[in-house]
Design brief:
Oligomer: single chain
Order of helices and strands: HHEEEHEEH
Radius of gyration: 13 Å
Shape: globular
Distance between the termini: 22 Å
Number of domains: 1
Number of helices: 4
């Protein structure tokens, strides 16, 4: 199964469309990274906003990168390597575990390059 097929299956599992999500990121100021063994969708957001990061687009003064979706070996590490510019924080959530978004110090995560 290809990385896109695996990602598509995950999005079906949560009742959403992977291709609509890719379209939003590609057209509303997010970033899409797809490699043979990983996929990642991310965008710049405000960690202090009352809006969920998933609903934030084209934020004027972002202070964080939000990993909307990551799948595959090293996908977050690859995203960190490709981020167009650093921001103080980076955050994500565990969708299937219903965990809230957590933001981390970008410099610490960048030093560790999570695997």
């Amino acid at each position: 199964m290809t990385i896109l097929e695996k990602a598509f299956k995950f999005y079906e599992q949560i009742g959403e469309s992977l291709f609509e999500e890719i379209g939003r990121h590609a057209s509303l100021g997010g970033y899409v990274f797809i490699a043979p063994d990983s996929i990642l969708l991310g965008k710049a957001v405000s960690s202090k906003s009352d809006k969920h990061p998933g609903e934030q687009w084209n934020v004027k003064n972002p202070d964080a990168w939000f990993v909307t979706f990551a799948y595959g070996k090293g996908s977050v590490r690859d995203f960190i390597d490709k981020i167009p510019h650093p921001l103080p924080l980076i955050g994500w959530m565990r969708e299937l575990k219903s965990k809230p978004v957590k933001f981390y110090d970008f410099k610490r995560i960048n030093r560790r390059k999570i695997k």
